[in-house]
């Protein structure tokens, strides 16, 4: 094991081991950000400075923990999954939306090609439990219908 000093990049959390002959790195070889005290915060804690959180914070943490447990339980129960485009967490299936004739106007391509998707159809709605982004996907039965209609050329 080496006794070379190591540093951790404050930007990407990569451990940077530097050569004693060359000296410490000025930039992170992983993310290329500067490694110095610019925009860095150094915190030293000892046991005397630590205090317990007030009761109001405990209640908020309890509510947050209950929310996280509820989300985790729903994610374990659902069959379909979708990753949030914004924060990359797993999304929760919120329900199904029916789209009828008056709610969707398909784009008519030029020529004799049929419209890509014709109403009525159903969408599965997903909600991200972290950032609350909403996403939709075509229901399984309508996916099959879409593939069949396009494979027949009608």
From TrEMBL:
Name it. Answer: Uncharacterized protein
The scientific name of the source species is Paenibacillus oceani
Q: Organism classification, top ranks?
A: Bacteria, Bacillati, Bacillota, Bacilli, Bacillales
């Amino acid at each position: 094991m080496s006794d070379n000093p190591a540093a951790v990049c404050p930007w990407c959390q990569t451990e940077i081991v530097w050569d004693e002959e060359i000296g410490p790195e000025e930039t992170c070889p992983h993310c290329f950000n500067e490694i110095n005290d610019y925009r860095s915060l150094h915190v030293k804690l000892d046991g005397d400075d630590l205090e317990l959180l007030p009761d109001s914070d405990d209640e908020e943490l309890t509510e947050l923990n209950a929310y996280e447990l509820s989300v985790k339980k729903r994610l374990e129960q659902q069959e379909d999954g979708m990753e949030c485009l914004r924060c990359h967490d797993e999304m929760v299936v919120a329900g199904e939306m029916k789209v009828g004739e008056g709610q969707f106007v398909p784009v008519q391509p030029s020529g004799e090609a049929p419209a890509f998707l014709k109403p009525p159809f159903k969408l599965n709605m997903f909600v991200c439990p972290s950032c609350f982004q909403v996403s939709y996907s075509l229901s399984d039965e309508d996916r099959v219908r879409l593939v069949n209609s396009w494979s027949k050329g009608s």
